[in-house]
């Protein structure tokens, strides 16, 4: 393994951490409707739990309403029950084959709670990134110990990994600030 391999590996893993953080942010709801909110809701489909998106068409009716169109007639009640029992605080209503899921407006207290949840997710992402930095640095130190690289190469590698870490954490902070603004906007 070379220094370039260590850096490339760390960069790829840090990019995955950013993607995981982005998907975590999508699960945190704001006042607006978003079909991705229902991604974490699973429904019983012939004995197995599957995401709603695998048994119904999820789309937006307007800025505050999600529509869920089941592909099978008998699934409507099960989907409605799964949405109601999820921890999202949503109250779906059936209109024939169509299930309407209105998004209730967020109270100020709930918005502040969501900001705390968002900050917690950001901190988890930063911890994961720092752990990746530590692993990359340990690999570089091992190469030095095995006399495969010089001390200058090791120092350069540590600096490059630190710069990569700083850039990645700055991106997490930027995503966090954008999500906070979105949550607190009335």
Automatic annotation (TrEMBL):
Cellular localisation: Cytoplasm
SUPFAM superfamilies, alphabetized: Ribosome recycling factor, RRF
Gene Ontology CC annotations of this record: cytosol
Ribosome recycling factor domain span: 21-184
Gene Ontology terms for molecular function: ribosomal large subunit binding
Domain of life: Bacteria
Keyword Oxidoreductase: no
Keywords, sorted A to Z: Cytoplasm, Protein biosynthesis
A single GO BP: cytoplasmic translational termination
InterPro entries (UniProt xref): Ribosome_recyc_fac (IPR002661), Ribosome_recyc_fac_dom (IPR023584), RRF_sf (IPR036191)
Pfam families membership: RRF (PF01765)
Protein's job: Responsible for the release of ribosomes from messenger RNA at the termination of protein biosynthesis. May increase the efficiency of translation by recycling ribosomes from one round of translation to another.
Family in the record: Belongs to the RRF family.
NCBIfam families on file: frr (TIGR00496)
Name of this chain's protein: Ribosome-recycling factor
Upper classification of the organism: Bacteria, Pseudomonadati, Pseudomonadota, Betaproteobacteria, Burkholderiales
């Amino acid at each position: 393994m070379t220094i370039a391999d260590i850096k490339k590996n760390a960069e790829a893993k840090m990019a995955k951490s950013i993607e995981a953080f982005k998907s975590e942010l999508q699960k945190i709801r704001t006042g607006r409707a978003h079909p991705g909110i229902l991604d974490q809701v699973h429904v019983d489909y012939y004995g197995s739990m599957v995401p709603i998106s695998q048994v119904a068409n999820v789309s937006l009716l307007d800025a505050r309403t999600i529509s869920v169109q089941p592909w099978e007639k008998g699934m409507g009640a099960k989907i409605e029950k799964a949405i109601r029992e999820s921890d999202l605080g949503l109250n779906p209503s059936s209109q024939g084959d169509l299930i309407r899921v209105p998004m209730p407006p967020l109270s100020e207290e709930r918005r502040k709670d969501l900001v705390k949840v968002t900050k917690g997710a950001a901190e988890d992402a930063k911890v994961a990134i720092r752990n990746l930095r530590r692993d990359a640095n340990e690999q570089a130190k091992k190469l030095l110990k095995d006399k495969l690289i010089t001390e200058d190469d090791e120092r350069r590698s540590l600096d490059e990994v630190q710069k990569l870490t700083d850039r990645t954490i700055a991106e997490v902070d930027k995503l966090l600030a954008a999500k906070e603004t979105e949550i607190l906007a009335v």
